[in-house]
Amino acid sequence: MEKDNFTSYPVIDAVDLRVFDSRLPDYGISGYLDLLGFRPQVITLLENSIEQLHSNDGKINNELLPYLWCAERGMPGGTVWSKRQLYGLVEAAHEQGIQFYMGSLCVPNKFPEYGSRAEWLYQHADVFDIFVTLRDGSSLKEVNGEINPLRRLSDGRFYEDVFIEDLIRYLNDYHMDGFFAGDGWCGLAVTLAEGDFHDDMIAQFEEWSGIMVEGSSTPEKAAFIWDRPENRALWIKFYAARWTGFYKKVYTALKKAGKELASLDPWARGPVDALYDYGIDYREIAKVGYSGLCLQAREENWGRNNGDWMYSWESGERISIPAIRAMAPELKLFWATCICNAPEHWIATKDARNVLERQSFSLPTLTYLDKNGDWKRALEGLLFIFGTDSDRGDWDFFRARWDFAFELPIRRTYGPALVYSERIHRAHLDLGARWQLTASPMNLVICGLPMHSAVNIEDIGNAGADAYLLVDPLGISDEEVLALMRKQEEGAGVIVIGKTDNPLLEKMLGIRKTDALQGTMLRDNSNGAVLMDHCPELDIADTKTDSAESMIDVVCGEEVRTLFSVNRDKKGPAIYIRRMHEWKKDQKAGRYFEDQREFIAGQPDSVDRRISELLCEICGFVVHSDTGQLFAHEVEDGIHIGVENSATCFYSKITLEFPEEVKRYSDYSLQRYTPAGYIHFDPTPKHLSVTVPPDNAIQIKVELEGNGNE
Questions:
Q1: Which helix (H) or strand (E) holds 631?
Q2: What is the pLDDT of residues 527-566, one digit of tens each?
Q3: Higher-scoring residue by pLDDT: 226, 679
């Protein structure tokens, strides 16, 4: 293989040693690259425990490595490696022009299924007693062995100081180029509500906050911290300060040593949920300096197998990924795509190939607007989890789609941009409440709203989006409202979802708050149809219109409130939606849904579909559909449209509507012979119809009459 056969976008390939062969002269590196058909910029081991770093004695000799360090979870099928052979593999990768990282996990360190565990860690548990303690007082030491790198050791030293010293020694000894922080290094594998409530973390919290935690037992102390909103806010901020300090210390030391740092994300979370659930503040961590953070958009694995759909499904990630970059544009963000992991019993290249294909077209085309008003890709590149157990046909299939998506010449993105505001984020956090930035937009996306971009309200002045969508804007300043009003005066739509507490914003929207009543039904004022004959949401009936027109009413006996209104007193419409969706609070042992029936009940309903339809009609987006999910970008020679059918077990016929007559359209030859979707012959001038199979997408190039896209 030619040594310049790198992808045009950065690729980090996470593997275990099973893909190589310790018996070959080049340790199997050339054979593996031939299997891939391309050259990743970075290869990282990702199956290892911290014990590999701490047990290193600096001797590169023929001593054999424990097999658990060679094959993830000790899975059979690999070769045995010595220290000298591992060193040789790193040098062989360097000869190919590839960087080589050491990666390790904080969890799991114990594998009951395989009858193995990280022996060194357990043998030295008297000093390295950093196993996570849950809020009920139990330890994860004998469950999955999860550790907390923010803790102090039993001798009083901060673990991070010992870790940094041993890590740099290890990387130097093996000539490795950096460290990849895997599961549990960027937010623990348990949420802040669950742990770590070890006495040491509580003591650190007391030192940081200046308050004394009440209670004589771990459950009592945990309740004092998490169940009181003011203390919950402090606990979240404390963990954020600790993680930011941790990464600053690690990155500074690695940079001084000439090494790189990358990590996985806090479990597929966007900017708000990462902070609220795991104490990770992307904005602050990005200031530290970072080679890259890899976000686990894992619909094909978590979303399908574990029911964690809101974050790990593509429709959730198209909210999270652009919002992260709007919050922290300097943060290099990678898509951690789940290819294949036989030891964990999922092989997505075979199990969910169509889902991976759909993600491969859509996620790399997500965008955000920078301070200059330019459309930027939200993702820098890819991380493979794992580059193991796939064949050449798999790699050829996906490489073609990744090349297409990452190289698509995007000039602009159509549809609304999600608005991120640090002020609103902090206002919710100070209340100890989650800013529900994910749930409501995601429901509208599933219903056809073509939203796949974001903008920081600090950068909105030069932005040129069709519309701007703001969620639950408690704490918004008058200056931020005025910035939105200027966008409205330029002709863009402004969409506000949720509660309001700013009089200037309410005047802009043409609404006023009033007494809350129990709704009895929802009525569509365009045709008088009843959208819902009961209103389970108890907090939606507290808004009336002044200058705005109510499009959907909440009927409360003899009284009427508004659910959806539009104010047209400026060039662009100002739209208000009172209905809010929230992330479910009663998760079931890590699963969002208990069964398929509950999952279906949690899907968007007819009200969400009508709201999405009204948004598209009022704002006049360049294309909208009657169902399904949309991506729409201006490219060099027309409009690129991605039409998706997810969250359904049926084929969907989707009709697209354009403001101009369709002059020319085609699919891409890349997809022509795969079950991606089928274009109908449609003589209607401003319409185009497609049929998309379950969980698939079709990519279409469209040229409209008179839109300047020649």
A1: strand 629-635
A2: 888 988 877 665 678 999 999 999 999 999 889 999 999 9
A3: 226
The rounded Cα 191 to chain-centroid distance in angstroms is 16
Tokens at residue 595, please?
Answer: 């069964």
Grade residue 1 by pLDDT with cuts at 50, 70 and 90: low
In terms of Cα–Cα distance, which of 687, 637, 689, 633 is closest to 660?
A: 687
Whose structure tokens read 């960087």?
Answer: 99
CA distance 408 to 668: 12
Instruction: Give the E-state strand segments of 480-614 in sequence order.
Output: 493-497, 511-513, 521-524, 529-532, 543-545, 549-556, 559-567, 574-577
The pLDDT score that the predictor gives to residue 102 is: 96
Name the token pair of 30: 């050339």
Contacts of 183 (CB under 8 A, 6+ apart): 105, 106, 107, 189, 264
Residue with the bigger pLDDT between 370 and 77: it is: 370
Q: What are the residues facing 689 on neighbouring strands?
A: 655
Measured over the CA atoms of residue 74, residue 80, residue 86 and residue 88, the dihedral's sign is negative
Measured in whole angstroms, how far is the alpha carbon of residue 637 from the centre of its chain? Answer: 31
In angstroms, rounded to a whole number, what is the distance separating the alpha carbons of residues 258 and 238?
30
- Map 161-228 to HEC letters: HHHHHHHHHHHHHCCCCEEEECCCCCCCCCCCCCECCCHHHHHHHHHHHCCCCCCCCHHHHHHHHHCC
Measured CA to CA in angstroms, residue 19 lies from 36, 60, 264 at distances of 11, 22, 21
Radius of gyration of the chain (CA): 26
Q: CA 107 to CA 48: how far, in whole Å?
A: 10
Does residue 4 register a pLDDT over 90? no
The per-residue DSSP string of 268-296 comes to S--HHHHHHHH---HHHHHHH--SEEEE-
pLDDT in tens, 581-635: 887 665 544 455 666 566 666 678 889 999 999 999 999 999 888 878 899 999 9
What pTM was estimated for this model as a whole?
Answer: 0.93
Query: Which H or E element spans position 509?
Result: helix 503-509
3-state SS, residue 694: coil
Torsion over CA: 371, 373, 378, 381 (sign)? negative
Dihedrals φ, ψ of 206, to 5°?
-65, -40
Return all residues near 479 (Cβ < 8 A) that are at least 6 apart: none
Largest CA distance in the chain: 85
Closest CA to 551 of 506, 509, 605: 509
CB 587 within 8 A of CB 193: no
Task: List % helix, strand, coil for the chain (3-state, nearest 5).
Answer: 35, 25, 40
Record the tokens describing residue 409, joined without a space. 């010449």
DSSP string, 393-441: HHHHHHHHHHHHHHH----EE-SEEEEE-HHHHHHHHHTT----TTHHH
Residue 2, pLDDT above cutoff 80: no
319: nearest Cα among 280, 368, 281, 282: 368
Task: Work out the end-to-end distance of the chain between its first and last CA atoms, rounded to an integer number of angstroms.
Answer: 39
Q: What are the tokens at 708?
A: 């300047």
DSSP 370: -
| Nearest to 293, CA basis, from 333, 251, 245, 250 | 333
CB atoms within 10 A of CB 291: 23
CA atoms within a 13 Å half-sphere pointing along the CA-CB vector of 469: 25
3 state DSSP class of 78:
coil
- Enter the tokens of residue 198: 């070890």
Q: Which element (helix H / strand E) includes 665?
A: strand 662-667
> What is the β-pairing status of strands 493-497 and 574-577?
parallel
Q: Which is more confidently placed, 239 or 686?
A: 239
